[in-house]
Amino acid sequence: MWCCLSFFHCQATSKKVITREEWEKKLTDVKIGKEDTNKLVMNFLVTEGYVDAAEKFRMESGTDHIDIATITNRMAVKRAVQSGNVEDAIEKVNDLNPEILDTNPQLFFHLQQQRLIELIRNGKVEKALEFAQEELAPRGEENQSFLVELERTVALLAFEDVSNCPVGELLNISQRLKTASEVNAAILTSQSHEKDPKLPSLLKMLIWAQNQLDEKAAYPRIGDLSTAMLEDPTV
């Protein structure tokens, strides 16, 4: 009886093995148009702001015309935030479209918060306190989440060694990148573009699909996404 149960258990849990030849045949049966692939690549280049690469790819692939000036201006805003020149970034955003900040109070607060962080980073304590009181405190009174973020930012002033303080991560470059990414997404949305490129989402879907299939079959899977090379199934 136990032998029979073990046999049926092995049969139920054994994975189907798909050879490389079978797998490659299945892949060739899936037809993906070159135009769709080109649009996917262009979507990534435009969204991420690779101006030169986007223009070169457009010429080589024959895809639709792209507005280089629009991408260039958006990247100028992003670079300004990343370099800590937030005031310049705000001016550039308003030059592009004043409604972006007028209709997005959270984004405007985060930009002003980043200005405060830069003042603290540069040791301008008095100016930082004045700026926090005049520009950010009124917004904090209107929004509890803003008040919490403001209090965390002002707390930087209470520590001599900010590198070891509980809120020291606000002075990391990653905070600038986070704010720059938020601005970039808002500008894209205002221009009726998707705020995130499609390619990373498709790669996440690929990983998820492979993980699901791993439970049921041994097949030639893609181990390294950077090369997209198929690996022979392991039995």
Could you give the count of β-strands?
4
User: Helix/strand/pairing class, anyone?
Assistant: mainly alpha
Specify the biggest β-sheet.
2 strands, parallel
How far apart lie the N and C ends? Answer: 28 Å
How large a portion of the residues is in β-strands, by DSSP E?
under 5%
**Helix/strand order:** HEHHHHHHHHHHHEEE
Keywords:
single chain, 235 residues, mainly alpha, two-stranded parallel ribbon, two-stranded antiparallel ribbon, 12 helices, 3% strand, elongated, CTLH/CRA, CRA_dom
What does this 3D model show about the protein?
Residues 70-127 form the CTLH domain. This is LisH and RanBPM domains containing protein. InterPro entries: CRA_dom, CTLH/CRA, CTLH_C, LisH, Ubq-SigPath_Reg. The chain is mostly helical and 235 residues long. It has a domain at 98-190. It is built from twelve helices and four strands. It has helices at residues 2-13, 20-29, 34-48, 51-61, 68-82, 86-96, 99-102, 105-121, 125-142, 144-154, 173-190, 198-214, and strands at residues 16-17, 217-218, 221-222, 230-231. The protein has a two-stranded parallel ribbon. It has a two-stranded antiparallel ribbon with strand order 3-4. Strand 3 and strand 4 (230-231) form a beta hairpin. The longest helix has 18 residues, at 125-142. The model is unreliable at 1-12 (pLDDT under 50).
